[in-house]
Structure to design on (92 residues):
C-alpha cells in the first residue's frame, strides 16, 4: 500500500473538508468491499501455500511419514497433521 497525496487526486473542496477533521495527519481509506482481495491473493502467497499443501498431501499418500514431512518442510508435526486433515476434507 503506497501513499498518495490527497491534493493530487481529490478536488480542493474535498481536501479542505477532510482538513477540518484531520489536518496534516495520515488517513487510511479502505477498499470498496467488491474490490477487496483476501490474504495472499495479491502477491501469490495464498496460491504458494495451497500448492505446498497439495504436495504434502500427495507425498503422505505415497508413504512419506508425518515426521519426515515436518523435517522437509520445516513445519511442526501438528502443522503437517492439520494440512493433511484439511486436504482430506477437500478431497471428499
Amino acid at each position: 500500500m503506497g501513499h498518495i497525496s490527497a491534493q493530487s487526486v481529490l478536488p480542493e473542496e474535498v481536501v479542505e473538508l477532510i482538513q477540518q477533521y484531520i489536518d496534516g495527519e495520515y488517513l487510511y481509506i479502505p477498499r470498496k468491499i467488491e474490490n477487496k482481495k483476501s490474504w495472499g491473493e495479491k502477491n501469490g502467497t495464498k496460491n504458494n501455500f495451497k500448492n505446498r499443501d497439495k504436495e504434502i498431501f500427495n507425498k503422505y499418500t505415497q508413504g512419506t511419514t508425518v515426521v519426515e514431512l515436518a523435517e522437509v518442510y520445516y513445519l511442526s508435526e501438528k502443522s503437517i497433521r492439520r494440512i493433511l486433515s484439511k486436504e482430506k476434507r477437500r478431497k471428499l
Notes: The chain has one domain: 6-31+43-91.
